């Protein structure tokens, strides 16, 4: 009986507690945030188009030089205290020529990104003697530039993008280097007043026979070296000064040499005609019989026989032709039994003979050895 009363009491307590819990207010859910009001939609105006840069944007910035004791030294250049007449602006990523101080005689501007040479930077550069602007991107040179530098002696402008020889070059120039450009035009009279020019380098351009007049080189009275290699010439250049010592015509399309072309040359010592189209038909037998000639290059042509040459010649390059035989008796300027071959002063001077790349095989004929007794090296 007591057990039943206890169970009944416990059941009542449980029901009362459940009622209390059920009567507790449930927590209200947080109100939903109000929806944001819609703002008027608009698209931002596109930025104005900037003009395309005149040069590639990946060029590195100009390099600023160290502080200088000279107040007129351009910031992008180097002015050494030990050499106050020089201005070093090479390898500085320059786009333009800086203002040249009046004290400067030697100007180094090679290996930059200069595309045009204007006159203003040279207004006070009247003492300039040496200018190196090689390996830039120069396409244009203002005519007035060289009026500012009348005393210029050396001008180096190789490896640029020039399409013609600049106008109004200083009359006193001694060296002019214009190789590795795109020159296809030499203006009439370009070298007319340049009596002191000793070296003219035009190799690796686009010069043809029609691009050079008959008198282009005529007035270069003191010319020592003329380099026209690696152009598109088919003929030997006309009216070369007869005092020239070095004539380089490699890698053209020359197939003929006039019979009397080298007559009258008083100092000609080096002639290079490698990589042309010369055959026996286009090479007169005695055209290279020039008493001053020391070094003759005729490699990579179409010769089938050895041309005659003067006893004073020391180096002869005939490699990579189509020569099948060599006759020392015909080449020797004297009879093999002549006493001249025992006289040291009269003996042929040939020291180096290159014949590899032909249709020859050793040994070298005995008459060649007997005649050319100064030979130190023969390459077959």
UniProtKB/TrEMBL annotation:
Q: Where is the LRRNT domain?
A: 72-106
Q: Give the chief site where it resides.
A: secreted
Protein localization? Secreted, Extracellular space, Extracellular matrix
SUPFAM superfamilies referenced in this protein's UniProt entry, alphabetically: L domain-like (SSF52058)
The protein's UniProt keywords, in alphabetical order, are:
Disulfide bond, Extracellular matrix, Glycoprotein, Leucine-rich repeat, Proteoglycan, Repeat, Secreted, Signal
Which stretches are tagged as biased composition: Basic residues?
25-41
- Gene Ontology CC annotation, any one: extracellular space
Q: Name one Pfam family in it.
A: LRR_8
Signal peptide residues are: 1-22
Under InterPro entries, the record lists:
Leu-rich_rpt, Leu-rich_rpt_typical-subtyp, LRR_dom_sf, LRRNT, SLRP
Question: Which SMART domains does the record cross-reference, listed alphabetically?
Answer: LRR_BAC, LRR_TYP, LRRNT
| Family membership noted in the UniProt record | Belongs to the small leucine-rich proteoglycan (SLRP) family. SLRP class II subfamily.
> What is this protein's name?
Proline and arginine rich end leucine rich repeat protein
């Amino acid at each position: 009986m007591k057990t039943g009363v206890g169970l009944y009491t416990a059941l009542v307590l449980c029901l009362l507690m459940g009622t209390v819990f059920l009567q507790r207010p449930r927590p209200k859910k947080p109100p939903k945030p109000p929806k944001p009001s819609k703002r008027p939609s608009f698209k931002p105006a596109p930025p104005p188009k900037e003009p395309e840069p005149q040069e590639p944007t990946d060029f590195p910035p100009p390099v600023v030089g160290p502080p200088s004791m000279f107040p007129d030294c351009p910031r992008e250049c180097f002015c050494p205290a030990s050499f106050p007449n020089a201005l070093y602006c090479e390898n500085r990523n320059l786009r333009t020529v800086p203002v040249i101080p009046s004290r400067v005689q030697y100007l180094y501007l090679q290996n930059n990104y200069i595309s045009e040479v204007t006159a203003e930077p040279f207004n006070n550069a009247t003492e300039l003697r040496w200018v190196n602007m090689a390996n830039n991107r120069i396409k244009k040179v203002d005519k007035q530039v060289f009026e500012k530098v009348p005393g210029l002696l050396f001008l180096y402008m190789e490896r640029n993008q020039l399409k013609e020889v600049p106008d109004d070059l200083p009359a006193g120039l001694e060296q002019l280097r214009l190789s590795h450009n795109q020159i296809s035009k030499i203006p009439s009279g370009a070298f007319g007043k340049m009596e002191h020019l000793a070296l003219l380098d035009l190799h690796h351009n686009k010069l043809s026979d029609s691009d050079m007049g008959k008198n282009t080189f005529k007035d270069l009275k003191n010319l020592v070296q003329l380099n026209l290699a690696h152009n598109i010439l088919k003929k030997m250049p006309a009216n070369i000064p007869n005092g020239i010592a070095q004539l380089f015509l490699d890698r053209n399309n020359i197939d003929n040499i006039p019979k009397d072309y080298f007559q009258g040359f008083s100092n000609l010592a080096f002639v290079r005609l490698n990589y042309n189209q010369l055959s026996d038909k286009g090479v007169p037998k005695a055209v290279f019989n020039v008493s001053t000639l020391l070094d003759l290059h005729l490699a990579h042509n179409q010769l089938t026989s050895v041309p005659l040459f003067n006893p004073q010649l020391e180096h002869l390059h005939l490699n990579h032709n189509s020569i099948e035989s060599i006759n020392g008796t015909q080449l020797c300027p004297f009879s093999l039994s002549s006493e001249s071959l025992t006289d040291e002063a009269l003996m042929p001077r040939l020291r180096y003979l290159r014949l590899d790349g032909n249709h020859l095989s050793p040994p070298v004929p005995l008459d060649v050895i007997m005649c050319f007794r100064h030979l130190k090296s023969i390459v077959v």
